[in-house]
Specification:
- The complex is a heterodimer of chains A (272) and B (326).
- Chain A contains 11 helices and 10 strands.
- With 272 residues, chain A is α/β, with parallel strands linked by helices.
- Chain A has a single domain, classed as P-loop containing nucleotide triphosphate hydrolases (Rossmann fold, 3-Layer(aba) Sandwich), CATH 3.40.50.300.
- In chain A, strands 6-7-8-3-9-10 form a 6-stranded mixed beta sheet, sandwiched between helices. In chain A, strands 2-1-4-5 form a 4-stranded antiparallel beta sheet, with helices on one face.
- Chain B starts with a strand and ends with a helix.
- Chain B is 34% helix and 24% strand.
- The mean pLDDT of chain B is 86.
- By secondary structure, chain B is α/β, with parallel strands linked by helices.
- Chain B has a domain of 106 residues.
- In chain B, the strands form 2 sheets. In chain B, strands 6-7-8-3-9-10-12-11 form an 8-stranded mixed beta sheet, with helices on both faces. A 4-stranded antiparallel beta sheet of chain B has the order 2-1-4-5, with helices on one face.
- Classes of the chains: A alpha/beta (272), B alpha/beta (326).
- The interface between A and B is large, with 35 and 38 residues.
Chain lengths: 272, 326
Amino acid sequence: MEDKEKRPIPVMELKGVTKEYCLRDSFFSRGSTCVIAMNNVNLAIQKGEIFGLVGQSGSGKTTTGRLMVKLENPSKGVIKLNGEPLSNIQGKALKSYRSKVQMIFQDPYQSLNPHLSISETILEPLIVNKIGDAHSREQKVINTLDIVGLAPAREYYNRYPHQLSGGQRQRVAIARAIVLDPEFIVADEPTSMLDATIAIQLFKLLKQIRKKYNMAFLFITHNLAAAKYLCDRIAVIHNGVIVETGSTNVVIRYPQHPYTKKLIETHPGFNF
Amino acid sequence: MALLNVENLTVGYKTKTGLLKAVNDISFSIEQGRSLGFVGESGCGKTTIGMTLMGLLPENASILQGDIYFNGSNLAGLNDKQWRDFRGREISMIFQAAMNAMNPVIRVDEQIIEAIETHNPEMSKTDINEKVKTLFNMVDIPKDRLKDYPHQYSGGMKQRAIIAMALACNPRLIIADEPTTALDVIVQDQILKEIKKIQKELNTSVVFISHDIAVVADVCEDICVMYGGQIVEKGKREEVFKCPLHPYTKTLLASYLSLDSDANIKVPEIQKAPDLITFNGKCCFAGSCNCCTAKCKSHSPGWVNMSETHQAFCFEDTLKKDNNGR
């Protein structure tokens, strides 16, 4: 809250971002059907903040994440990293952008290359970005494995993804995301495929990483309880429109928008 | 008499490294119209139970021991042909991955029609179409989406179509294996309400398998908590969730995040899941249990009765120690 008053430059900022996906009806007909995945979205995420984006499937959560890592371009609006707009960055600038903004995907069973060992997976971003020499890279990988809780690192170093459990794979995905010391990480439902007992350990890990590196996170989830545990602020998105945003505790305790109320109401609990 | 009665069931998978007992000597029963929930970690044998009840075990798996009495007849010895006739009509299943449970090149309505035709060859075309419409109505899929292909459906709609398919032949028992895992909370809520409504209206029994305890608590009257291929605690949901006995149940409940939980809650850690190939019949949770005693590692645990319906697979001393420790 204090940060907001001082208005420092946010790490990640979306201004009036709209994203449309257009499908041509048929070959001969004119015009097209457009789906508006994001409609005039404004977000600002500060350094060291875990920002939650909560909503239903199809509400535009993942699209928001994909735009932030520049896997897609907005139809309208500006995305800024540290105040720098990234409308048409290409080549070197894009590469450097990608090293600053990383992503952790939803499904650890599909987001790791089965042909690469754990060490190769985590080395790849370092090699692509020409960071360090062979020795320092190896050291960096081992350190990162330690940080994400895959210890002793040597034991995991030469393993392959199929030899790991879902939770361990997701730890590898986190290691891959943090190895470049990015400023911003998009975590797209990183625990939706995992058991509660494992999920909570990953949340703890994300919190530790945030504390250690002061990174900013966008945490995409449909689970309000997870958002509450992890996030400082949340935004509730519905049909591509952000309907409510604010500090997590306030939004969950005093929801204003009917959609937020519905999300809270439908959250499974032990009411019998 | 109970609709389904499973006694001392053991199911093993032949693997390269040895025989893996995914389900180890478990017994449970369900009355008509009741719902029974299985909760536990991935790999604890929940899905294997579902697959066994549907006769859909893969080739390398077999029932090593035990009986499955459904409505008086033993399912453990059925052959493939008998299973084909039985499956879908008496017991049907709502599968975990709705995305992959449908044939992508056949229209959704045809897939449901196929199931009805197979089991009711005497039914007329119009009756079947009528039935499909009623089913879709029941699960809230608009009629104009009947002729769509599965890829045109959203995740929630696919799952509803799967539920419609499971209901197609009015089964007496539905096995729902993680039916809402891939869905968001709002759709999950709708699907769970759907399942509860159908269960009530049709007086169907439901076996509900999930790793999400809150979902199971929502749907099921009776709960079995599983760990490492064994049932470690069973009872009515109020008993199991309000006063859990087994250390694993406590861990599971403690790791569940609710909207009221504090950001600084103490989180128990689960160590590596037990290796079910080298498993020696002792307590499978001993490796992760924080009140494990010497006895836990040398003796097999037994059922400790808390009430007539509430039991835990543990040692009385350990349970006492656990209670004192917290």
